[in-house]
Amino acid sequence: MKNYLLLFSLLSSLLFSQNNFSLKIDAPEFEKDSLFMGPPTSTGNIRNIYSYDIVTTKNVIFNEENSYVKIKIADENTITGKIEYPHPFEISYYDPKINGGYMTKPFFIEKGNIEISINKENNISSVLETETPSNKEYLTLKKQLENFDNKLKPFQNNNPTDIEAKQKFLQSYIRKNPNSIVAFWEIVSDFSKFQFHKSYITSLALFSSEVKKNFSYNEFKKIIAIENSTGVNGNFPDVVFDKNSMISKSDFSEYNLTLIDYWSITCKPCIEDLPKLVELHKKFKEKGVNFISVTDENKKENMEKATEILKKNNVAWKNYFDTKKEFPKKLNASGYPLQILVDRNGKIVARKLGELDQIEEEIKKYVE
């Protein structure tokens, strides 16, 4: 019995250690400063699908809630932790002179030892000193995708046929490489930068059962399912904010169209666009267009500040506070300003992130 327990302990220890990674960062130009490591710049709640662990030290601070690591740069900098399968990361630097940051190109962290050099060339750049299977595949795949990527502009309105063309290539690639975790993360990246497209559903279905077991795949699939059901032609779900406040199908039935504006006091464009939104309301309310605001704030002082901003801008429509974060759960709302147009039957006719001019065009098309 003792021998059996010893063997089990050894096997468990071996399996546990196989998920270890070590990332050595050489960054002498940033010594006594801080760098940050986290998921590539993204939208769509992508940080929630990351699954890894970091050993915290006096120079390495892991913010698990937001999936990023702060590294206080010293002579030697090594991040250790556990990771079950490869994840893409960026290393970034905050520059107080511009009140903004710079980031490296994405690279993959996977099991084993990796070394990377970070320098201030072009504000911040990186050289991966260790060739790993995922990073090697990533460079090869990105070379093959170059023509597709050149046509697509991150965080802008892209031609859906260009998104679909890239996905068709990826689908062919996945059929030949069904275990490719790199291809999976490329789909995640496309969703994050170019928003939802139905071809992502087809692409995800092609992966092997091994890929489909991992946490990131299953969480991302949930996000895609929400986007698919609440995108254009989908139905707006019931959203309950508290026992006295909710948005349901009955809110839409009395109007030709309802515009729902999702915003936050931390979103500068949201506040700057409020006067334009008020003008839109004046312009279209006589044509049966209703407005509803949903504010992503749950702290008393922030809610009071939001109320002041709305009052200052003469907002005359209903505002709800999403204190329980129901909007992200029901609609995968992950950025501001997000505008959603809903018809009298509760069907979503348009969904735009930060595109107020496009929303006005959609309203015109619908009511005229």
Which labels suit this protein?
368 residues; alpha+beta; 6-stranded antiparallel β-sheet; 5-stranded mixed β-sheet; 18 strands; 26% strand; globular
Walk me through the structure.
This protein is 38% helix and 26% strand. The chain has 13 helices and 18 strands. It has helices at 2-17, 133-144, 146-151, 160-176, 181-194, 199-205, 209-212, 215-230, 268-272, 274-284, 300-312, 326-331, 356-367; strands at residues 20-26, 34-38, 52-54, 60-63, 68-72, 77-83, 87-95, 100-103, 107-109, 112-119, 125-128, 239-242, 245-247, 257-263, 289-295, 318-321, 338-343, 348-353. Strands 2, 4, 5, 7, 8 and 9 form a six-stranded antiparallel β-sheet that branches. It has a five-stranded mixed β-sheet with strand order 3-6-1-10-11, with no helix packed on it. Helix 4 (160-176) packs antiparallel against helix 5 (181-194) and helix 4 packs parallel to helix 6. The longest helix has 17 residues, at 160-176. It is globular, with a radius of gyration of 23 Å.
Average pLDDT number: 91
Q: How far do the termini sit from each other?
A: 80 Å
Radius of gyration: 23 Å
Q: Give a quick account of the main beta sheet: strands, pairing sense, barrel closure.
A: 6 strands, antiparallel
- Overall body shape: globular
Number of helices: 13
Please indicate the percent range of residues in DSSP E strands (runs of 2 or more): 25-35%
State the helicity in percent bands: 25-40%
Class of secondary structure makeup? alpha+beta
Q: What is the total tally of β strands?
A: 18
Query: Which spans have pLDDT < 50 for at least 5 consecutive residues?
Result: 8-16
- How is the quaternary structure best described? single chain
